[in-house]
Amino acid sequence: MRWDAQRLDVEDPSALPGMPSIRGLLRSVQVPEFPGLTFHEVRARSALNAVPGDSSMPFPYTINPYRGCSHSCVYCLSGDTRVLMADGTQRPISELRVGDRIIGTEKRESRRHYVTTEVLAHWSTVKPAFRVELADGTEIVASGDHRFLTARGWKHVTGSMGGADQRPNLTTDDTMLGFGRTVTSLDVRADHRRGYLAGLDRTADHLRHEGIHTTRFESSRATGYRKPLSAIGVQTRSAGEASNRDEEILSRTQEALSGSGVDSVLEDPGPASHVRTVRVRGGLREQLRFPHLVDPAIRRKCSVEGAAVRSDADLRVVSVRSLGVEMPMFDITTGTGDFVANGVVSHNCFARRTHEWLEFDSGRDFDTQVVVKTNLVEVLRKELARPSWQREHVALGTNTDPYQRAEGRYRLMPGVIRALADSGTPFSILTKGTLLRRDVPLLTEAAGKVPLGLGISMAIWDDELHQALEPGVPSPRARLDLVRALTDAGLPCGVFLAPVLPGLTDDEESLDAAIGAIAAAGATGITVIPLHLRPGAREWFMAWLARTHPDLVPRYERMYARRAYVSAEYRSWLSARVAPLLTRHGLDRQSGGAARQVDGPLATGVPGDEEVGFPEGSLPTGGLPGVRPPWQQPAPSVEEPAAEQLTLL
C-alpha cells in the first residue's frame, strides 16, 4: 500500500557523507545487538499519514514509526568467495557491482541449467562465520543463515532437527550441486600483458625478416563482456599459413595443457576441412579450469550458458565448523535468485522495491537500512491536540511492522499508544512481531479509554515453508502464543491466515490444523486470504517456486495470468473449502461464532475478494465475543468498502 504514507516528512535537509540523501537525518548508527542493521535517526515533520479518499481501507490515517523492516533474513558469504561471471571468469563477491552479468541457474523440465543473470543488489554486513568443507577440497566461509543447493534441496549452513532453530541444514549426508573446485582465477599482471603483446610483436618481426610488411590494428573493441583484441594485417597472401591443421602447433598446444595439468585429446579432422581440434576433457570443472588458469583474450567459448548443472566432482559435505569469530560478509540479489559461489550453487536474498522512494536500493537496504522517526511521539501529540482533529481511526502496521526488532531499541510504540488513548483516538495495530507482548498492560489500559483492534498475521502455517519464505520472522507458534496472551488479557485479537498458497497450504488438512489452532488460542476472528502476487514480490516468489516446486509453475501462471490476484474460480473454491472449517471451529461469520460482529455480520464474500473484511477484533469496532464495551460503535454495513490484503509477504 503506497500513498501519502510513503513520504518521509522530516525536517531540515542534512545527510551524512556517503549516505543516501535523507532529509532530517540526525545520525546513522550501528549497534552490536543488531548486527548488519543501520538505523537512520530522523526528525519527522508529521506523524499522521492520510489515506487517499478512494482507498478501500477501513481507516483514514496511518502511523509508521519505521521505514524498512528488520524482520527479514540475512544471508552472507565472505568477501573472497569467487562468483562465476557470465564470461567464465571468477570475481570476489566483495568486488561485484549492481549490473554485473553473472551465472545463475534455472530449472528446465527436469534438469537445472546454468544461465546468465544480473546482479540487482549488493551489500555487506558482519556475521558469525562458519567454514564449509567439501570432499573435493572446496572451502566456503559463510554465515549460518546462508543456503546452498544440495541433492536434497536448499539447505542452510546451520540449523537443528527441532526447537526454535529447526530448519533444513547441511550435514555430512549432503552433496552440493555445481562443478566444484577449479583454480583461482589468474591475477593478470604486467608480464602476462607483455606476453600477449610479444606474441604479436614477434610475429611481425618474423614476417619482416621474410620481407612481408604488416600493419597492427584493433580488430575488436572492448565491451562489457570481453577485452579489446589486437591483430596484424598483411598486404599479400604470400605470408603462408599456420592453422590447426599444423601438427606441430597442435602438439605444442597439448604439451602446454599437459604442463598445467589439463587433460586434452585431439579430435579427428573433419572430412572436408581436415581441421583438427584440441578438446579439454574432464567435464565443466576442467573446461573452466583452463580459462581460469590463462585468462584468454577471446572468451566467447568460455561461458557455461545453457550447460546442465552436473559434475563428476566429489561435492560431499565433509564438515561445517564455526570459526568462532564475526567477520565482514557480502551478498547479492540476482535475477534468478541464485549464483555460483566457489563452484557450487548458492542462494541469494530476494529484493523488494518498497524502499526505493528513500533512495535506498531495492534489495538488502530494505532489510538493513531502517529509518527511525525519533521524535514521532512528540509530533503525534501536537497533531492530536489540534482542534481540527476528528478522532478518526488510526492504523499502525499497514506498511512496515511497528513491532520489528528496531522497536526493542527505540520503544516508540508505548508513547504512540498513550498519545492515541489520551486523545480519545481509536486505533488498530497489525503485526507479526511478538514484541507486542511487552505492551499488553498498556493496551489493556488504553482499551478502557478508546476502541482498539489488534491483528496478528500468520503468513505461513507450515514450519518448513515458513523457514523458506519468512526466515527471521517469529514462528507461527510464537504468534499463536501472542494471540493467547492478548485474549487472556481481555483484548480483542483477529488473525489473518494469509497468504494461503495454492497447491502448498490449501489442502483441507493444513487449513483445518491452522484454523483449529487459531481458534484454540482464543482469536476473536479470522480472515483467510489467498496469495497476492504484486510486482516485486511476484518475481521473487515465482523464482522460488521454480526452484522448489517447478511442477506448480504452470498452475500459478494460469491462475494469476498477469494479475496480482488469484482467479475468481480459485477464490470460490477456497471459500467453499474454508466455510465448513470456520463453522467447525466456531469462527464462521454467519452462525454466531466468535467472528461475528456484535451488531451484525462482517461483509461476506470469498477470501481475497474486495468484499472480505478484516477479522473480528482487528479493527476498533468490536471486543471479545458477547462483550460490548461502552464505546462500541455500530458495525459496518456490507456495502462499506472492505480491506485489501496487507503486505504480508
Explain what this protein looks like in three dimensions.
The longest helix is centred in the N-terminal third of the chain and has 20 residues, at 190-209. Helix content is 23%, strand content 23%. The two termini are 13 Å apart. Residues 1-22, 237-242, 350-367, 590-609 and 622-649 have low confidence and may be disordered. It has a seven-stranded mixed β-sheet. Strands 6, 9, 10, 11 and 18 form a five-stranded antiparallel β-sheet that branches. The protein has helices at residues 190-209, 247-259, 283-294, 364-368, 376-384, 406-410, 413-422, 440-447, 463-469, 476-488, 508-520, 537-548, 553-560, 568-584; strands at 25-29, 38-42, 49-50, 61-63, 66-67, 77-78, 82-84, 90-92, 101-108, 111-134, 139-142, 147-150, 153-156, 214-220, 229-234, 264-266, 278-280, 317-334, 338-341, 344-347, 369-373, 394-396, 427-431, 452-458, 494-500, 525-530. With 649 residues, the chain is α/β, with parallel strands linked by helices. It is elongated, with a radius of gyration of 30 Å.
Give descriptors for this structure.
single chain; elongated; 23% strand; 7-stranded mixed β-sheet; 4 domains; 5-stranded antiparallel β-sheet; Endonuclease - Pi-scei, Chain A, domain 1; 649 residues; alpha/beta; 26 strands; disordered C terminus
Uncertain runs are: 1-22, 237-242, 350-367, 590-609, 622-649
pLDDT averaged residue by residue: 75
Task: Tell me the helix content.
Answer: 10-25%
Number of helices: 14
Radius of gyration: 30 Å
CATH class of the largest domain: Alpha Beta
Q: Look at the helices and sheets and give the structural class.
A: alpha/beta
Number of strands: 26
What is the 3D shape?
A: elongated
